[in-house]
Amino acid sequence: MNRLMCARAAASLAVVFFSFSAALGQAWVEIGDAPDDIPNRQDTKGVGALTQIRGSTGADDDWVDVYSIMITDTTAFYATTEESYGNMTASATFDTRLFLFNEDGTPAVANDDFIGEPNWRSFISDPSTFPNTVAASAANVSLTPGKYLLAVTGYDNDPLDVTELILFSDTGSISSDNLELHGPNPDAGAFSTWEFAGESGDYVVELGGAEYCAIPEPATISIAALGVLGLWGVRRQLRSTL
């Protein structure tokens, strides 16, 4: 095998290798358009810690993205679009809101603004570790390890029941106490729809205490593993011919 053939083979296998690495990495990148109608969602698939979700809203009436995540450590869990928090990898080009639902679609916690102006970014966690004021509606909420649905949207969008009651907050809207962590509205029923189009744009949600909700298909892992082994073999062959 000459050097050119080896180089081409290595390049081809590198594509497989890096595709597999992305699946095993710590970031989930939105595929197409993540669903918005709870409890439908886009499953995050990978192995190990999930530290970022990257996506965008706004195109073709896409105002909400919903993802399934696995919370593994409730004391360490958080999800934020605030650039100054944690590892400082979060970002957003718009005024965000974050809503966390239980796997069955019932509301858990939500936040409009973590710090306020000028960024108007969002932050959610278990009420026991929330850095700001916890609203009365979230006072008795306690997250447990398991699968949850994380919804990313923009101001001033809210999830509604069939009678148009907002699912979160006992004061009518999370905008009324925008810096607080809100919990379920006890008077609201099951999710029906989103209120209206909110602000939109690109976002990076930084997470802690979370993992991917699903492992990639075995076939994907097997093919990628073969690619990694093949790349290793080609590299050895290249070294022997140089």
TrEMBL record:
Transcription as UniProt keyword: no
Family matches, as InterPro entries: Ice-binding_C (IPR013424)
KW DNA repair (keyword) present: no
Signal peptide boundaries: 1-22
Annotated ranges, domain Ice-binding protein C-terminal: 214-236
Pfam families listed in its UniProt record: PEP-CTERM
Keywords assigned: Signal
UniProt-recorded name of the protein: PEP-CTERM sorting domain-containing protein
Organism of derivation: Aeoliella straminimaris
